[in-house]
Structure formats: structure tokens, C-alpha cells
Automatic annotation (TrEMBL):
It comes from Gallibacterium anatis 12656/12. SUPFAM superfamilies: S-adenosyl-L-methionine-dependent methyltransferases. InterPro entries: SAM-dependent_MTases_sf. This is DNA methyltransferase.
């Protein structure tokens, strides 16, 4: 049976493969918690989750919401996008371009050292442009 998962206002068609990390990495991602989360869901909620509501109170990528909907497709899953993650995904191409520009600028700069004032201005200019 194929069901659809509604997360953050969009519809995600289920796939055979589970995602184990968010498309944009960030501090606080729950990927290391995912196996335990799946285990607890299966212990607490029988079968396909019919009649259950699962609330993902974490703000961010919706990784736990996605996993919950994959494991319990009949459950209602509520996703918290407090951090505006869905909005950031819309701008992923711009973010990747900026990351590349900053990487190019910082080539040859030593890590764990303060940047000189000229380099700081170049970085600020790249971010603001």
C-alpha cells in the first residue's frame, strides 16, 4: 500500500529507502538518535500506527517526522518547522554557491587562526552580495 507523508506543507511520497540524515547538515541533527527512535516507535505503537498522532517537537529537518511516517504510515505525524528548515531548503542552490565562494576565498588560510582584516572584509562582501 502506498501512502503519502505530509510534512511542512509539502507532500513526500514514501520510498523504499529510509533517509538517515537531513539534506542540509546542521548542529543538533538527530541522525545518531534515529535507530533508537525507530525502536521505541515500534515498541510503543503497534502495526501501522492507525489512530495514533506522533508529534515531532524538534525544530529542524523533520528527519524524525519522516522516519515516523515511514514506520507508521497510518499515524498522523505533526512536524515542527520552528527553525524554518523548509524555507532554507528552497535556497539550497544559493547556499551552496556561497559555500563555494567562501571556500575559494579561504583557500590557503590557516585553520583555527584569526583572519586578517582584509580577508574578513572579503568574506563579508561575499556574504552581502
Amino acid at each position: 500500500m502506498i501512502t503519502k507523508c505530509t510534512i511542512g506543507g509539502g507532500v513526500i511520497a514514501p520510498q523504499a529507502k529510509y533517509f538517515a540524515q537531513a539534506p542540509l547538515p546542521f548542529v543538533g541533527q538527530k541522525r545518531m538518535f534515529l535507530q533508537q527512535f525507530r525502536s521505541v516507535l515500534n515498541q510503543m505503537i503497534a502495526d501501522n500506527g492507525d489512530g495514533w498522532t506522533i508529534v515531532d517537537a524538534f525544530g529542524g529537518s523533520g528527519l524524525l517526522s519522516y522516519a515516523a511516517k515511514q514506520l507508521k504510515p497510518k499515524a498522523r505525524v505533526i512536524y515542527n518547522d520552528f527553525d524554518g528548515y523548509a524555507e532554507r531548503l528552497k535556497h539550497i542552490d544559493d547556499i551552496n554557491r556561497l559555500r563555494q565562494q567562501l571556500s575559494d576565498l579561504l583557500t590557503g588560510c590557516p585553520r583555527q587562526k584569526r583572519l586578517d582584516i582584509a580577508m574578513r572584509h572579503k568574506i563579508i562582501d561575499a556574504i552581502e552580495s
